[in-house]
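User: I've been trying to design a sequence by hand for this structure and keep getting stuck. Would you show me what you'd pick, starting by listing the structure so we're on the same page?

Assistant: Good idea, let's start from the same input. This is the structure you sent:
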C-alpha cells in the first residue's frame, strides 16, 4: 500500500504528461495545417509574379526558379538592367505598393552577386555567386537583357515579400505598376 501511495504522484504525472503530449500533437497538427493553407494561398499569386518577372529580358530574378513552397519563402528578389532598385521601390511606394531594396543583412552575398560575371560583373576573387536564371543571352553588358549590367549596385536588390493575404488582384496591381515604370 505504501508503494502505491509513493507511486501515485508519478502515475498521475505520467497521465498528465500523456494528455499534454496528446494535446501538443493535436496543436502541432493544427499549426501545420494552417501553415499548409497559407503556403497554398501564397503559391498562385507568387507564381504569377515570378512568371511576369521571369519573362522580362532586363530583369534577373535571384533564387529558385519555381514557386515550390517547400524550397521557397514567399519573397522574390531581382535586379533590373536599367532601373535602380531604390528608384523602383520609391516609385512603387508612391503608388502605395510596398517593396524594399538593399542588401537585407547580406552585404557579402549582394557583393558576390554584383561581382558575378553572370550578372554583368567583372568577376571577383573566388568567382562570385549567382543563384537563379539569367534572362536573355550572355552577359556582355549589351542591351539584350540578361545579366548585362546591374544598374545600381549600391541600391542592392529589389525585394517583394508576399504573404497569405495577398490576392491575385494585389499582384495584378503590382504588375501594372511595374509595367508603367518600365520594368
Amino acid at each position: 500500500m505504501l508503494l502505491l501511495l509513493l507511486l501515485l504522484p508519478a502515475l498521475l504525472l505520467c497521465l498528465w504528461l500523456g494528455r499534454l503530449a496528446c494535446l501538443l500533437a493535436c496543436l502541432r497538427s493544427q499549426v501545420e495545417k494552417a501553415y499548409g493553407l497559407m503556403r497554398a494561398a501564397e503559391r498562385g499569386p507568387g507564381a504569377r509574379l515570378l512568371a511576369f518577372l521571369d519573362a522580362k529580358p532586363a530583369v534577373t530574378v535571384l533564387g529558385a526558379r519555381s514557386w515550390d513552397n517547400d524550397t521557397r519563402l514567399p519573397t522574390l528578389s531581382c535586379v533590373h538592367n536599367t532601373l535602380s532598385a531604390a528608384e523602383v521601390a520609391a516609385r512603387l511606394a508612391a503608388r502605395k505598393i510596398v517593396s524594399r531594396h538593399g542588401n537585407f543583412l547580406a552585404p557579402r552575398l549582394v557583393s558576390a552577386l554584383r561581382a558575378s560575371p553572370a550578372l554583368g560583373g567583372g568577376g571577383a576573387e573566388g568567382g562570385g555567386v549567382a543563384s537563379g536564371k539569367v534572362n536573355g543571352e550572355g552577359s556582355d553588358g549589351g542591351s539584350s537583357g540578361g545579366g548585362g549590367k546591374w544598374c545600381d549596385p549600391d541600391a542592392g536588390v529589389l525585394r517583394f515579400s508576399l504573404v497569405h493575404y495577398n490576392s491575385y488582384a494585389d499582384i495584378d496591381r503590382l504588375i501594372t505598376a511595374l509595367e508603367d515604370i518600365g520594368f
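That's my pick for every position. To get oriented when you compare it with your attempt: The helical segments are 2-54, 85-93, 107-115, 168-181. Confidence is low (pLDDT under 50) at residues 123-148.
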